[in-house]
Design a protein that fits this description.
Layout lengths: L1 H21 L1 H35 L2 H16 L7 H10 L1 H13 L5 H7 L7 H13 L3 H21 L18 H33 L3 H7 L1 H6 L5 H10 L2 H13 L4 H25 L1 H8 L12 H26 L1
Helix pairs in contact: 1-2, 2-3, 2-4, 2-5, 2-9, 2-16, 4-5, 5-13, 7-8, 8-12, 8-14, 9-13, 9-16, 12-14, 14-15
């Protein structure tokens, strides 16, 4: 059976290679669109957010989140107080942020595999930057719509956190932990953020090239690649809430390496993403019944491609160069300490 599966996968991938070669013009155009999407939206809006959020959970400021929200999370969701910063900043920061912050806690020995699995069932959201700034501000020209989407997605995640709570979940009783200094926290955070966003951009470009060849229905595109699908497709608010809570297969694959390192099953993650999407869909249906004008606004929008930043090329280059310098500094320190 394994040999048959390997043969089928090899055949499909070979056909995919030939398709990329035979339809090279379409593939290149799709890849260009994916690169533009990463350049104009993903890197400028998410990279600074992920770095700062990661610093906040690695540096001594993480203890502040433990003091402010730790007791609340321990009692209501039965998760260690050490996870407070990762959950709060993960839901605010957006898609890769929650997974990156959880991985940081796992690498630092603050949580175990079981806790990481539990966190990744709900610590996943479109985040304020994407839902409010990108969708609400740039695409739909309606910040209130973006705020509504953010609240719906966040509430959906918290509902799953309540549903999956376990009395056997270990509660952290540790006092003030030994956190790295600010410079080390910044370097570690930049390193993990660059790796996560690089992987994210690679999958976006791959999916953009593939979708240009296959030409799937625009409505289904969001199921596979959320940014292109939601930003460039007209759909009602409940479906936007569904797809933004689900996140898209592209993002799931981007996080697969992080999930695997923490011992989290991709299938388990996928099932709870579907559950979160369904909950968001139901919540948004109720929201539209109470505020029908919001649903009408989203239905009457035309397809748009958001352009959030001017001079995005120079901004992206500066960001990449800065991160490269930091990573180079890490390697130098490793060599000196060896």
């Amino acid at each position: 059976m394994k040999k048959i599966n390997d043969t089928v996968i090899t055949f499909v991938l070979s056909c995919f290679v030939f398709a990329l070669i035979f339809f090279s013009d379409k593939a290149k155009q799709g890849a260009r669109d994916g690169i533009a999407l990463c350049e104009n939206i993903i890197i400028p809006s998410l990279l600074p957010v992920i770095i700062i959020c990661s610093v906040l959970t690695r540096y001594r400021s993480a203890y502040v989140f433990e003091k402010l929200f730790g007791s609340f999370f321990e009692r209501l969701f039965l998760i260690p107080a050490a996870c407070a910063g990762a959950v709060v900043l993960g839901l605010v920061g957006g898609y890769p942020t929650g997974a990156v912050l959880c991985k940081g806690l796992y690498d630092d020995g603050r949580i175990d595999k079981e806790c990481a699995k539990r966190l990744m069932r709900f610590n996943f959201s479109g985040g304020a930057a994407f839902l409010i700034s990108v969708l609400g501000g740039a695409v739909y020209k309606n910040k209130a719509l973006g705020v509504s989407l953010f609240c719906i997605n966040t509430l959906s995640s918290l509902i799953i956190a309540l549903i999956t709570r376990k009395k056997t979940t270990p509660i952290s009783k540790k006092g003030k932990a030994d956190y790295p200094c600010l410079s080390d926290s910044l370097i570690l955070s930049a390193d993990s953020a660059v790796k996560s966003l690089a992987l994210m951009c690679v999958f976006i470009i791959l999916f953009s090239a593939t979708s240009e060849i296959i030409c799937p229905p625009r409505f289904l595109l969001a199921f596979f690649e959320i940014t292109n699908g939601v930003c460039n497709t007209k759909m009602p608010l409940p479906f936007i809430a569904f797809f933004t809570a689900f996140g898209g297969v592209c993002i799931h694959l981007q996080l697969s390496g992080i999930l695997r390192d923490m011992g989290v099953s991709l299938f388990d993650f996928f099932i709870f993403r579907l559950a979160g999407a369904v909950i968001s869909f139901i919540l948004s249906k109720l929201f539209v019944l109470i505020f029908p004008e919001v649903g009408l606004v989203s239905l009457n929008l035309t397809s748009a491609k958001p352009v959030l930043f001017n001079n995005s090329v120079s901004l992206s280059l500066v960001t990449v160069i800065g991160c490269a310098v930091i990573i180079f500094d890490i390697e130098n320190r490793k060599l000196k300490s060896a």
